[in-house]
Amino acid sequence: MSVSPALTDLSRLYQTEFVRSARAVGVLWAICTLCFAIIQVVVLVQPSWIGTTDTRHPGAPSGTLGLFEVCVESDWPVPDCRGGLSSLSPLPSFQSVAVLVGVSLWAVWTSVLCLCLFRFCSAATVYKICAWLQLTAGFCLALACLLFPDSWESPEMRALCGDSVGSFSPGNCSVHWAYILAILGVLDAAILATLAFVLANRQDALLPPDTKDGKGGEGKDLNDVSQFRCFSFCVQTWRNLCFTVTIHSS
Question: Which spans are transmembrane here (predicted)?
Fold first, then answer.
C-alpha cells in the first residue's frame, strides 16, 4: 500500500519540528545541569546552613554556621570565621554530611563533563549516563539533608545556638538559605534526571526512517559504531588520566 505524497510531507514536517523541539529541550537541560553544578558548589562552601534568630537571649553570640566554618559577628564589619574550605577539613560533627555533599558535587560535575561525549557517543547513551549521575547526586544530597539536622547536637551548635540544641532541634537558631538551597537541589536533580531519561528514550524517534532497524539493520550498525567510539574515547581518557597520575606521583 503506497503512502500519499501529502502524508509523507506531513510526516517529514512533523519529524523536523520534533527534532528542533528535542534539541531545544536538550540545550535547556544542559544549561540547567550547569546551573545545578554551580548551586552545588555554593551549597558546599557557604557557611549559611544554620544561623541565629532575632529572638536569642541578650548577650548571646550572633552568626552563621556551615559545613566547614563558623562565622560569628564582631565589632568589625567582617564576621570572625573559624575554619574554612581551604583546609579541606569540615567541622567534626558534619564530616559525614560534607562527604555526601562532596560526592554529590563530584557526580553532578562529572555529568557536566559528560556533555563532551555528545561528539563521540550516541545521544541516548550520553543522556542515560548523565541521568544516572544526576540521580546519584540527588540521592547523596538528600542523605546529607537528612543527616544534617541529626548532627546539630554538637559543641559548635551549642556555642552558637545555646544549650537547648538537640537533634532536629536548632535551639535559638534556624535553618538558613544554604540548607534550603540544598533541599531544592534534591528536587532539581530528580527533575533533571527524569528529563534526561525521557530525552534518551526519544532518541530513536529522532532518527530518519532509513537508519532504523527495519532496513537491513543499518540503524543497529550505526548504534554499534557510536557505542564503539564512546567506549574507545572513555578508555583513552582513562589511560591518559592514569598516565598523568603516575607521572606526578613519581
Answer: 21-45, 97-118, 130-149, 177-200
Determine contact, residues 127/196, Cβ cutoff 8 Å. Answer: yes
Grid cell locating 54: 532575632
pTM of the entire structure? 0.75
Determine the CATH number of domain 29-206+222-248. 1.20.140.150
Closest CA to 44 of 92, 80, 86: 86
Using an 8 Å Cβ cutoff, are 35 and 181 in contact? no
DSSP state of 69: E
Whose CA is closest to 22, among 128, 123, 130? 123
- Which residue do the cell numbers 554499534 mark? 224
From 114, 140, 151, select the one nearest 129 (Cα to Cα): 114
Grid cell for residue 117: 561525549
Tens-digit pLDDT string for the chain (250 aa): 454 555 455 455 445 555 667 778 888 999 999 999 999 999 998 888 998 876 556 666 788 888 888 888 776 777 777 777 766 678 888 889 999 999 999 999 999 998 888 887 788 888 999 999 999 999 999 999 999 998 888 888 888 888 888 888 888 888 989 999 999 999 999 999 999 998 888 775 555 554 444 444 444 444 555 554 555 555 555 555 555 545 544 5
Domain boundaries, the chain: 29-206+222-248
